[in-house]
UniProtKB/TrEMBL annotation, chain A:
Keyword Nucleotide-binding set for record: yes
Protein name: Sulfate/thiosulfate import ATP-binding protein CysA 2
Domain called ABC transporter: residue spans: 3-237
Gene3D superfamilies, sorted: P-loop containing nucleotide triphosphate hydrolases (3.40.50.300)
Molecular-function GO terms, alphabetical: ATP binding
InterPro entries membership: AAA+_ATPase, ABC_SmlMolc_Importer, ABC_transporter-like_ATP-bd, ABC_transporter-like_CS, CysA_C, Mo/tungstate-bd_C_term_dom, P-loop_NTPase, Sulph_transpt1
Top-level lineage group: Bacteria
Pfam families: ABC_tran, CysA_C_terminal, TOBE_3
SUPFAM superfamilies: MOP-like (SSF50331), P-loop containing nucleoside triphosphate hydrolases (SSF52540)
NCBIfam families for this protein: 3a0106s01
Automatic annotation (TrEMBL), chain B:
Keyword Lipoprotein attached: no
Membrane association type: Multi-pass membrane protein
Subunit structure, interactors included: The complex is composed of two ATP-binding proteins (CysA), two transmembrane proteins (CysT and CysW) and a solute-binding protein (CysP).
Xref: InterPro entries: CysT_permease, MetI-like, MetI-like_sf, Sulph_transpt2
Protein name per UniProt: Sulfate transport system permease protein CysT
Keyword presence, Protein biosynthesis: no
Length: 346, 277
């Protein structure tokens, strides 16, 4: 089912949480709302769910206005960051909850409920925990139960609010891959909120990058990473080095490399990712001269911090092999030149 | 119970010893004196003292009125706690403080105040009298006094639990299709139940032992509005120390059972909600 978000505005007192948001969510896609905390992504998700009412604007489900539909009738599955499982109920009863509260004439029989719950528990691979209480489960297990509970009511849309935010890194990675596989099997329209760019890029079909109550860019993970629409998106999706440059006849220059700067005015800010910088021991014409001050080994990659004459220290990322070949060490004089960059008006 | 040999907290032996001595002097000594005193009685005499018709009637009044008062406060205490936790309103702090007043007020003051209000010529009693409702000097008056005295218990046990109840639980239930009533009945009430029962048991235990506030409003008519603590006093006044002690032992036994029930409830709720203490 498709969701359309039309000119949604929301304020909390003086704070503008959402400023004129428009968004189309396609049937069956897995969409990530990505942004720093306070950017309005959770508020948007809660408005889509009906847990919060917008000041202005409307939400359309499959072309029908759902803005005034109560959360109870909206048929959305909502998964909370802190699971929100019912502590006094067993895992089985938690998952069965949505079926048991149905009005009598639509409520399934006990046998049907039992079968449905066990099917769902098998889907989340936790059938063996049916008789436990939530307090007896690990965080990852709790979140999978919360997901099974949300799926039990056969929602038209699945909404997840920082679903992996309270889990440790390893469980998080496992669970997001698992969520992706689950989505590929079920094809239910899903929206999840995250502040972790790696998570959004890995899991989602499309990513919506938000900042200060506005949408900065919407696109596939490749699009937002490779063609960031704004400096904010560029910075938010990875580490970055900033260089300032004057523009001569539509070209900006850093370390001997020229970049087209058609839209920039007089001055330009050049954004370069740490892995897009070449490092050499031989002085070339216009390369940036510097001295290595730190070497950090980060598993498969190595990060060098280089002090240059003007501006902030530059971070250079090398693969492990290139680092071993070059045998770079602290204190060495080096010359830097960027291979690729994005240029914005400064 | 294993005693830790190397604890980071010093003074375990000293503080435990002091605690035990203190408890023995303050609690166990008087209570065992009570039990020892009763052992001087013949079984038949003891049985006679605690099953006299007038004493039996006083049990009915005490336990009946206490049960009604505790039940009333179960309902309205929950309501009060709910309002205090959920809604912001002007004067909320004042209302919150008022809840503790029955704790702080000398019980005799409460008794006199209630008796003055509800006497047939009192400011409220005068309006109730023509309607045929007599509050003062009847068992109804006892219920009023006990309800007043035990008001804080349910409120103060439920309040913190209600405060900790995440609104996310209610949102989750609503998103799964539950109506307001279903959310209350299936999610909120079961979570509050242990606290409610504890508050109820505490209120009930307190009401059984209440003396000061009741005697002024009860009228103390034999077989009608005499409470058990009053029976003990009247026995003492007649120098029937053994008789008084026998009834006191019955009260002690009831209180002890109540305590067991309270502890059982707390254990049960801790286990059910998975909190480790």
């Amino acid at each position: 089912m498709s969701i359309e978000v039309r000119q949604i505005n929301k304020r909390f007192g003086d704070f503008v949480a959402l400023d004129d948001i428009n968004l189309d969510i396609q049937t069956g896609e897995l969409l990530a709302l990505l942004g720093p905390s306070g950017c309005g992504k959770t508020t948007l998700l809660r408005i889509i769910a009906g847990l919060e009412t917008p000041d202005r604007g409307s939400i359309l489900f499959h072309g029908e206005d759902a803005t005034d539909t109560h959360v109870r009738e909206r048929q959305v599955g909502f998964v909370f960051q802190h699971y929100a499982l019912f502590r006094h109920m067993t895992v089985f009863e938690n998952v069965a909850f949505g079926l048991r509260v149905r009005p009598k004439h639509t409520r399934p029989t006990d046998a049907a409920i039992k079968q449905k719950v066990h099917t769902l528990l098998e889907l989340v691979q936790l059938d063996w925990l049916a008789d436990r209480y939530p307090a007896q489960l690990s965080g990852g297990q709790r979140q999978r139960i919360a997901l099974a509970r949300a799926l039990a009511v056969e929602p038209r849309v699945l909404l997840l609010d920082e679903p992996f935010g309270a889990l440790d890194t390893k469980v998080r990675k496992e669970l997001r891959r698992w969520l992706r596989r689950l989505h590929d099997e079920m094809h239910i329209t899903s929206v999840f909120v995250t502040h972790d760019q790696e998570e959004a890029l890995e899991v989602a079909d499309r990513v919506v990058v938000m900042n200060k109550g506005r949408i900065e860019q919407t696109g596939t993970p490749e699009q937002v990473y490779d063609q960031p629409a704004t400096p904010f998106v560029y910075q938010f999706l990875g580490d970055v080095n900033l260089f300032h440059s004057r523009v001569h006849e539509g070209w900006a220059e850093v370390g001997g490399t020229r970049f087209a700067a058609p839209e920039a005015g007089d001055k330009a800010v050049i954004y370069v990712r740490p892995h897009e910088i070449d490092i050499q021991r031989i002085a070339t014409d216009k390369a940036l001269a510097g001295v290595i001050t730190h070497v950090r080994l980060l598993g498969a990659t190595v990060r060098l911090e280089v002090n240059v004459a003007a501006g902030d220290p530059v971070e250079v990322e090398l693969t492990r092999e290139r680092y071993t070949e070059g045998r770079w060490s602290v204190g060495e004089a080096v010359w830097l030149s960027p291979r690729e960059a994005r240029v914005y008006a400064g | 119970m294993a005693i830790k040999q190397h604890s980071v907290l010093p003074g375990f032996g000293l503080s435990l010893g002091y605690t035990l001595l203190y408890l023995s002097l303050i609690v166990l000594l008087p209570l065992s004196a009570l039990v020892i005193k009763v052992t001087h009685m013949e079984w038949a005499a003891f049985w006679h003292a605690v099953t006299e018709p007038r004493v039996l009637a006083s049990y009915r009044v005490t336990f009946g009125a206490s049960l009604i008062a505790a039940t009333l406060n179960l309902v309205f205490g929950l309501l009060l706690a709910w309002v205090l936790v959920r809604y912001p309103f002007p004067g909320k702090r004042l209302v919150d403080a008022l809840v503790d007043l029955p704790f702080a007020l000398p019980t005799a003051v409460a008794g006199i105040a209630l008796a003055t209000l509800y006497a047939p010529n009192g400011s409220i009693g005068r309006w109730l009298d023509p309607l045929g409702i007599k509050v003062a000097f009847t068992p109804l008056g006892i219920v009023f006094a006990l309800t007043f005295i035990t008001l804080p218990f349910v409120v103060r046990t439920v309040q913190p639990v209600l405060q900790d109840l995440e609104t996310e639980l209610e949102e989750a239930a609503a998103s799964l299709g539950a109506t307001r009533w279903q959310v209350f009945q299936r999610v909120i009430l079961p979570t509050l139940l242990p606290a409610l029962l504890t508050g109820f048991a505490l209120a009930f235990a307190r009401a059984i032992g209440e003396y000061g506030s009741v005697i002024f409003i009860a009228g103390n008519m034999p077989f009608v509005s005499e409470i058990t603590p009053l029976m003990i006093i009247s026995k003492l006044e007649q120098y029937d120390y053994l008789g008084a002690t026998a009834i006191a032992l019955v009260m002690l036994a009831v209180s002890f059972v109540m305590l067991l029930v309270i502890n059982g409830l707390q254990w049960w709720s801790a286990k059910r909600l998975g909190r480790r203490k």
